[in-house]
Amino acid sequence: MQRKVPQLVCPAGSLPALKAAVDHGADAVYLGYRNDTNARNFAGLNFDEKAMREGIRYAQSRRRGVLMAINTFAQPGRFADWQRAVDGAAELGVDAVILADIGLLAYARQRHPELRLHLSVQGSATSYEAVNFVQREFGVQRAVLPRVLTLAQVETVIRNTSVEIEVFAFGSLCVMNEGRCWLSSYATGESPNTVGACSPAKYVQWERSPGQMATRLNGILIDRFGNDEAAGYPTLCKGRFEVGGEVYYALEEPTSLNVLEILPAIADIGVAAIKVEGRQRSPIYVAQVTRTLRAALDELARDRQHFSVKPAWQSELAKLSEGHQVTLGAYNRPWR
After folding, report:
1. Could you report the per-residue pLDDT of 164-173, keeping only the tens digit for each?
2. Phi-psi bin for 53: left (phi > 0), alpha (psi -120 to 50), beta?
3. Which of 120, 196, 234, 313 has its CA 20 to 30 A from that of 186?
4. What's the whole-model pTM score?
5. In whole angstroms, what is the distance from residue 184 CA to residue 329 CA?
């Protein structure tokens, strides 16, 4: 049976990014509050209530979905802050909320039974048993799978659940448990799931000296860049370290997930939506990635049997990839 193509879900870290995603073909956007209920709580990004209302109106008036990410874990003594975020999302009329915290899922189901619930990738559901549990207990209608499963494993989940499945299609990879970053916590005492940002800006230091730029996180040297190199944002997982007398990317080399070449397989196994990572990125990035993936999905819908990846699509996405490198990530494990 030929299946529909997946929805395209794109990041909106700001109002201009939201409009860029909508204008260039996203089926839905995901966004968050300007506080630590949001796992991408970077300084200068995200939405206050006024911008949130304008963004929701802009997207929904064009028949695009708006998904609210309240995807950090509630902190001790502050559960009411996360409850207010869910209440606010319901009042604003978003199309779904993306949650990871089990207590918050229970609250949303009880307090707002009409609100559509999605399980965040932060929930780390890697099996259909986990997906079916959150459906049974909390009425979750979609789950975002972690970027650690092969395509065959994704298919196994889909075959054994009625919950819609969303997978990542483009953007940064995470060597941690999808945002539960022990490295950031070790270095700074804070992590994406406590303050909503990987390598919080207040701990970042840039040190220029003759011929080079050094980057540090809370005093820890992450990397040194020559004058001819672009200096990346200092995250421990993508730093270059001396190991056994060699300096290299010891944990993870900067690279981006790119599923263009396996889009037909993703559609064939019944994936409901593909997601672009990058709420911390610019509106130009969002526009270019959205436009490219929209073109690919439309081509797939028109002629699935003869679908092929256009060199222009790969060229466009390669410009936006970390380290100008792309990978299929865990979807393809040739060593198995």
Report:
1. 999 999 998 8
2. alpha
3. 120
4. 0.90
5. 22
